[in-house]
């Protein structure tokens, strides 16, 4: 895990609380930009936040490249709400600057944050716009990232073939620019789609490939995310003991870097593993904790997935009213996401559980 660097930016120079801080000098700005890009390339997003967070909002808007780097670091460490506010505030300053690269990357970051918040239709429209901009500018790296994101939006809505097609396009673009991290992200997302399609061996192979790339050039959050999703796969394949070890390792990382959404999602996976091991009380505690944490940010997909597991758990415990309430909340969120098949799957899980219980009762 990368060491956190305690480096702070120079910024507030005021003699009174109502006075505007003096403008950054050219040397100050250039020094901050150089260091912030250095940390960004190292995937040390906590370090970027330590460096740039003390800078006033007015300075960030006057120097929008610094603002973009802080927003990107904030998103990468789970600070989605603050990052979205900053990204939106940066729109006009970047347009005034006339910087095409920064403009399309700002828009792409807005799309990623909206996708993670569950604003799928808005995110998809942004990604299509950015893909056109990137393709016209010959920015294959951004075109690859945007193709990956279009694949993720399709995956969320269970459009598997569309997701796979976008990932294939992204992989070709990443290979063209030699982006190991990008290729790793494609493997990671392919693994998640194959897991949902029931192709577990293929999914496991892609998770292994993703981890190889992420260990070379990924961030701590990407490595932890890959661990977490693979743990869920291993549990599905019946290896819950090993899955638990990997999921706890992922959670430790998310906690260390202060990634709230990642922490909540890893608690969800640990709850699923516990439930599959028959530890219902432990599973309930983990899932309730996950729900509390995810509701401090806006992540509709993860919230819906947690509610789904709680609905199934309540059903197993014979708590019909609580199960119906949780299932209703989950369905509402899935439908907001345009993920109708996920809502239908939840109903199918509860029906199948009733059949299993009926068979057990009949055998006694």
Secondary structure topology:
Blueprint: H1 26-41, H2 45-52, H3 57-62, H4 64-76, H5 80-89, H6 91-97, H7 100-117, H8 120-137, H9 140-156, H10 160-177, H11 180-197, H12 200-217, H13 220-236, H14 240-257, H15 260-276, H16 280-294, H17 300-316, H18 320-336, H19 340-363
Structure explained in plain terms:
- The chain is mostly helical and 364 residues long.
- 80% of the residues lie in helices and 0% in strands.
- It contains 19 helices and no strands.
- It has helices at 26-41, 45-52, 57-62, 64-76, 80-89, 91-97, 100-117, 120-137, 140-156, 160-177, 180-197, 200-217, 220-236, 240-257, 260-276, 280-294, 300-316, 320-336, 340-363.
- α7 runs antiparallel to α8 and α15 (260-276) packs antiparallel against α16 (280-294).
- It is globular.
- Residues 1-18 and 355-364 have low confidence and may be disordered.
List keywords for this structure.
364 residues, globular, disordered C terminus
The rounded distance between the terminal residues' Cα atoms is 53 Å
Share of residues in strands:
under 5%
Distinct helical segment count: 19
* Helical fraction: over 70%
From N to C, what is the helix and strand string? HHHHHHHHHHHHHHHHHHH
Show unreliable segments: 1-18, 355-364
Rg, rounded, reads 22 Å
The largest sheet, given as strand count, sense and whether it forms a barrel, is: none
Mean pLDDT: 90
Structural class: mainly alpha
Which descriptor suits the 3D outline? Answer: globular
Number of E strands: 0
């Amino acid at each position: 895990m990368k060491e956190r660097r305690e480096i702070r930016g120079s910024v507030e120079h005021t003699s009174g609380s109502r006075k505007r801080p003096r403008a950054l000098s050219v040397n100050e700005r250039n020094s901050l930009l150089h260091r912030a890009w250095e940390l960004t390339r190292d995937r040390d997003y906590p370090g970027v936040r330590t460096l740039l967070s003390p800078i006033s909002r007015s300075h960030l808007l006057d120097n929008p490249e610094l603002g973009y780097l802080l927003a990107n670091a904030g998103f990468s460490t789970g600070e989605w709400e603050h990052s979205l506010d900053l990204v939106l505030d940066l729109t006009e300053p970047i347009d005034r600057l006339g910087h095409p690269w920064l403009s399309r990357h700002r828009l792409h970051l807005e799309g990623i944050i909206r996708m993670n918040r569950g604003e799928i239709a808005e995110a998809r429209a942004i990604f299509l716009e950015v893909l056109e901009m990137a393709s016209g500018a010959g920015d294959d790296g951004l075109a690859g990232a945007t193709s990956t994101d279009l694949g993720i939006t399709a995956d969320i809505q269970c459009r598997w073939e569309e997701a796979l097609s976008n990932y294939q396009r992204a992989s070709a673009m990443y290979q063209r620019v030699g982006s190991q991290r990008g290729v790793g992200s494609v493997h990671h997302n392919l693994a998640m789609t194959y897991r949902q399609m029931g192709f577990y061996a293929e999914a496991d192979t892609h998770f292994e490939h993703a981890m190889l790339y992420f260990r070379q050039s990924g961030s701590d959050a990407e490595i932890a995310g890959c661990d977490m999703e693979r743990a869920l796969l291993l549990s599905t394949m019946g290896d819950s003991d090993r899955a638990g070890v990997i999921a706890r390792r992922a959670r430790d990382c998310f906690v260390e870097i202060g990634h709230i959404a990642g922490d909540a999602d890893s608690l969800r996976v640990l709850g699923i593993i516990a439930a599959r091991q028959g530890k219902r009380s432990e599973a309930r505690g983990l899932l309730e904790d996950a729900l509390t944490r995810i509701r401090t940010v806006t992540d509709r997909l993860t919230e819906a997935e947690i509610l789904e597991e709680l609905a199934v758990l309540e059903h197993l415990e014979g708590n019909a009213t609580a199960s119906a309430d949780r299932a209703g909340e989950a369905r509402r969120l899935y439908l907001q996401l345009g993920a109708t098949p996920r809502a239908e799957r939840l109903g199918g899980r509860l029906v199948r559980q009733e059949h299993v219980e009926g068979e057990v009762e009949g055998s006694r």
